[in-house]
Write a structure and sequence with these properties.
The protein is mainly alpha-helical. It is 66% helix and 0% strand.
């Protein structure tokens, strides 16, 4: 029996046709989202340049970061700072505590100066074991904060440098406990977020050591900065590929309410981090998707999509909405019902994104629409009758390839009724004739010519609809006029058996030996 928390494919309302592939591809590759997200918007691991505390007595923000300082000088200073820290930790005389704090602050300052801090030098000099000592229970907050800050920036380094934090992980987790001060807990969460961002192995270690519960607790109060940092760390921690952590998170008391509250009322930075948590919850866990679908999360997502102009927020909002539509039929059958205000607003939000200058918004909104268009006849008619269709037709011929491929799924889905069984889908002839009349056939033929097998499949499927569905045999002439025969014949000896069979059958059936004899 399949695990109830396993990744669920997009619902297959259209079998063997245009609509059943894109959603599943997205869900199977959900764990790739994090890498793309951080490369485009903000790194998976974050260097801490300014402290989490607003108390200048506790944190020296060090305005002069000397970005252009010679690396060799910085490394020499780091070697000296590590040795000073070792001396301070072993010192037991008067003022020992302040001596340790001062030494930690100097090391932290050096690890915060450059975009590429001298982490390797610090580790080679033996900083890790000393920093772990500085995290010992009973240490003053100022010491814990500085030590955690140093570890945060070490964890933001190369993979082997991040892995060097292993001895510190239990203490960092422990200092996120309820008895810890908020600045200390937040700085520890930041460090652990960097560790989780490194990869699956370290995420599993953190999960086995109990990092999920304290981070989940930290997102529940209305403490903006702390919630934001904890949410970011959680999004790194649950990003998979296994679904267990996502399911465990959504089942923790108070987490679902906190996600909805912050997503609705938080500022854009906070909402962005919570939206990424929702992305991973809905991409990886059936349980989380079902629980979220039965709340007002779709309403919240649509409202924020309509009101925001932040690219960093709009992307996870779109992905969350698309995952929910693809993953739970309750969303389309009970929430995004044609005629409902929320549905109208959702379509308007998609139009806004399609009209944006940002390529990624065009692609993401097309994917959301393709999932909605894979729904009922009423959903198809709703999209078809909206102004979004003219935008999609234009994008099919003018947009970059990855957007055109997503758009093709939407337009293709609009032309076929939900399939029953494994047979060919039933045509919605009115939609097909209209879209072909708007000139979209050429865009699908171009996809057939592409080296991308998925895009070529969608193109071939649409050509089949045109050949079969256009009245009075017009489809044959239209396909020929767009050089569709030549596009299909390139698959005559193609290595992909499915595409080869599809193309050859279409050519044989509609352009066989008798083709053209009557003309």
């Amino acid at each position: 029996m399949a695990d109830e928390t396993s990744k669920h494919p997009k619902r297959e309302s259209i079998k063997s046709s245009v609509g059943s592939i894109a959603g599943q591809r997205r869900r199977e590759k959900a764990v790739m989202v994090g890498k793309q997200r951080r490369e485009l918007l903000m790194r998976t691991k974050r260097l801490c340049r300014v402290g989490v505390s607003s108390d200048s007595a506790n944190v020296d923000a060090d305005d002069d970061m000397m970005m252009d300082e010679e690396q060799s000088i910085l490394e020499d200073q780091t070697l000296k700072a590590v040795q000073e820290l070792k001396n301070a930790v072993s010192y037991q005389g008067k003022g020992a505590m302040q001596k340790r704090v001062n030494a930690l602050r100097e090391l932290r300052r050096l690890l915060s100066k450059s975009e590429y801090p001298p982490v390797e030098v610090a580790l080679t000099a033996g900083a890790m074991s000393t920093l772990v000592q500085c995290l010992s229970f009973g240490s003053p907050d100022e010491q814990l904060l500085e030590a955690a800050w140093c570890l945060t920036n070490i964890a933001a380094g190369k993979p082997e440098e991040t892995k060097a934090l292993s001895p510190a992980l239990p203490l960092l987790i422990a200092h996120m406990g309820e008895k810890s001060s908020l600045p200390v807990a937040e700085q520890c969460a930041w460090a652990l977020g960097n560790v989780a961002g490194e990869g699956e192995d370290l995420r599993n270690i953190l999960l086995s050591q109990g990092a999920l519960q304290p981070l989940a607790r930290m997102i529940q109060p209305n403490k903006g900065s702390t919630v934001r940092t904890a949410a970011w760390a959680l999004s790194n921690l649950i990003k998979g590929p296994e679904s267990k952590a996502a399911t465990e998170l959504i089942r923790i008391d108070g987490v679902l309410d906190a996600i909805l509250r912050h997503l609705k009322k938080g500022d854009e930075d906070l909402a962005t981090e919570l939206a990424w948590v929702v992305v991973y919850l809905t991409a990886l866990s059936n349980v989380a998707t079902n629980m979220l679908a039965k709340t007002d999360v779709v309403q919240i997502l649509v409202e924020r999509l309509a009101s925001s102009h932040s690219l960093q927020l709009l992307i996870p909002l779109l992905r969350s909405l698309g995952n929910l539509v693809a993953g739970d039929s309750h969303v389309t059958s009970h929430i995004l019902v044609p005629g409902n205000e929320i549905t109208v607003n959702a379509i308007q939000a998609m139009i806004k994104c399609l009209e944006s200058e940002h390529r990624v918004l065009k692609k993401e909104s097309s994917w959301v629409l393709s999932n909605i268009a894979a729904g009922s006849i009423e959903h198809k008619k709703m999209i078809y009758s909206s102004e979004v269709v003219s935008l999609l037709v234009r994008l099919l011929s003018t947009a970059p390839f990855d957007i055109r491929k997503e758009v093709a799924y939407v337009l293709g889905n609009l032309c076929v009724a939900p399939a029953e069984g494994s047979g060919r889908p039933t045509l919605i002839t009115e939609h097909l004739i209209s879209l072909v009349g708007k000139g979209c056939l050429a865009g699908f033929v171009d996809l057939v010519r592409s080296i991308d097998t998925e895009a070529a499949r969608v193109g071939l499927q649409f050509i089949e609809l045109v050949l079969r569905g256009m009245p009075n045999g017009e489809g044959v002439k239209l396909v020929e006029a767009e050089d569709g025969i030549d596009a299909m014949e390139r698959f005559q000896f193609h290595e992909n058996e499915e595409l080869r069979t599809m193309a050859n059958e279409l050519v044989d059936v509609y352009f066989g030996v008798n083709y053209g004899l009557d003309s």
